[in-house]
Amino acid sequence: MSAVDIWSADLPDVPDNLDIQFWNLNDPLTRLFDPNTFDLIHSRCVGPGIKRSRWNSYITELARLLRRGGWLQMAEYYYNIQSDSGRLREDHAMYKWGVTYRGLMEDDRDPRVGRSLVDKMRNAGFRDVYSHTYRIPIGPWSGGMYDPSLRFISVTISVGYTWAAACEGDVPRSFANPSNIMANRLQSYEDEVRLLVVQEPKGAGWGRFRLCFGTRNL
Ligand SMILES: C[S@@+](CC[C@H](N)C(=O)[O-])C[C@H]1O[C@@H](n2cnc3c(N)ncnc32)[C@H](O)[C@@H]1O
Question: Which CATH code is given to the segment(s) 2-216?
Fold first, then answer.
């Protein structure tokens, strides 16, 4: 099993069969792995790190790395927090956080990439492409509207802070610019969002998480 990230993470447990590679996903993956190598590739929550112009070649390269009949699973957020309570008006920190985050990503990333993953996978030659959009709570999972079986998506996501996480890795230029006013504002909205999640963990809102998978054409 292989894992790829641009940074080394402090993993508590590294299984013996895990081979960790440090690589920028914006660079050709075919220089890192041989074609026809994997039965399953899982690409999740790397949207803030992948350049807008890179997505098509990224997915085409993932197809090449799969064995025939292998599967690709992709999952990405849409960075827009919503609420059923009607409280997320334009002056709300979560609303402002979403607008600012998407605005900073627009520079050279695609904050809406989740919506086009199915088309991109089909164009790259995948078949039996399936897609589903999940509502991911901001804050801890509560009963009721959230299906407990969705816990499989991620423990990380379940604490909700993923939504308020800053970009890591190969960050968009606008995030990385310390004099960018919006990048600085984002930090203060994040602090507010964290506070709101602590104050009202079960009613903080939700965001969309798009999951797609398909198999490499024979
Ligand atoms: C939100 S975390 C997601 C981690 C993991 N994929 C998951 O779903 O739990 C984003 C990860 O993508 C990595 N990353 C961002 N841009 C990258 C890039 N261009 N190449 C490789 N890794 C990148 C970051 O270092 C970070 O570990």
Answer: 3.40.50
